[in-house]
Design a protein that fits this description.
elongated, Rossmann fold, alpha/beta, single chain, six-stranded parallel sheet, five-stranded parallel sheet
């Protein structure tokens, strides 16, 4: 859908009516409604995918352009009035574009519980005053009785903010999708380092480590050049791939590297595991907290050390049992995810 065109037109009665029919259909079988941001390119894509996976039969995707609703103010009011008439017991906002604050306040008038799933994390607030302000606004909405409960993906955030502000906070574990195994690329050892070239992603330590592997072909989704490394070993992929194109690339690797300094959770990691491709990570989330063996083999303690990453790549490549163990572990993650969702819904 071309959200940019809709945003500029600001006359979207047919889109609004279609959305209301979706919401009415959800109310026919559920007292819980989950409002999910639509995507603009990669913008909100991670939140969108995670939300729909958590609540596949209760989610409605809201059309918006980047972080702005495509609906006019009158259209937004019509939508919110219609939702109130349906008398959902819980309305969960997954993600927090700024306009969600006013929606929460309006919907709270006729709804028992207003909840939020916050997909961000403290590290991304560095130099980002607008995101810091939004997080403070969330705290204020809870203190003022608008938000009844909040769930976080990032390990430690719920406990920290509950202790600081007394908010009702929960930890949510994201669902891992079912993905089919993909034929791996040949010849050579194909290694995916599929992150952006920004400091937090630790890209250069990882490409150096991958370059040390004999016969390695290194796949990146950035146009960054690496002039300090031997040439001819890199395959550059477009950064604007669809999700299906990206997961096809991810699944065709022998090993993926996601050894970034900080993440909220790590959907790239779990999608890789689901296709039987081991993925090295730093200890930036609780993805491997439910299997000590996989944690030992796939979490890199010395993550700012390219040689240490290389040595761990070699250990993973030598263990032929890991692909099947990765797939089996995804079932464990989804059991834990279901438990966390139920705790949140029942709170």
């Amino acid at each position: 859908m071309n959200w940019k065109r809709l945003f500029k037109n600001r006359n979207n009665e047919h889109i609004l009516l279609s959305l209301l029919k979706e919401i009415e259909a959800i109310r026919a079988h559920s007292a819980v409604l989950v409002l999910v941001p639509g995507t603009t390119g990669y913008n909100w894509m991670g939140v969108n995918r995670a939300s729909v996976a958590l609540f596949p039969s209760q989610s409605v995707v809201l059309p918006h352009y980047y972080s702005h609703s495509v609906f006019s103010e009158s259209e937004q009011n019509k939508l919110l009035d219609s939702i109130q008439l349906l008398q959902f017991e819980q309305i969960i906002f997954s993600g927090f574009p700024a306009y969600f604050a006013s929606w929460m306040q309006q919907l709270k008038q006729q709804t028992n519980q207003i909840a939020l799933i916050y997909h961000g994390f403290f590290s991304e607030l560095a130099g980002n005053s607008s995101q810091s302000a939004l997080l403070y606004q969330i705290v204020e909405l809870h203190k003022n009785g608008i938000l009844d409960k909040i769930a976080f993906n990032k390990k430690g955030m719920a406990e920290s903010l509950q202790s600081l502000w007394g908010i009702t906070a929960h930890k949510i574990i994201l669902k891992t999708p079912e993905l089919s195994r993909i034929e791996q690329k040949e010849p050579g050892i194909h290694i995916g380092v599929l992150g952006n070239d920004q400091f937090r992603k630790n890209l250069h330590n990882q490409v150096v480590a991958a370059s040390l592997v004999s016969n390695a072909v290194i796949h990146v989704t950035t146009d960054t050049s690496f002039p300090y490394l031997p040439p001819g070993r890199f395959v550059h992929h477009a950064s604007g791939q669809s999700h299906s194109e990206f997961t096809n690339l991810l699944g065709s690797m022998r090993i993926n590297l996601h050894v970034s300094y900080s993440e909220s959770w790590g959907q790239l990691t779990t999608e890789s595991l689901a296709m039987g491709v081991p993925c090295l990570v730093a200890y930036h989330s609780d993805v491997f907290d439910f299997d000590d063996e996989l944690k030992r083999k796939l979490v890199v303690p010395d993550y700012d050390n390219s040689w240490a990453i290389y040595k761990q790549i070699c250990e993973v490549l030598s263990d032929q049992s890991l692909p099947e163990k990765c797939i089996a572990y995804c079932e464990v993650l989804n059991i834990e995810s279901e438990k966390s969702i139920n705790r949140f819904l029942e709170a």
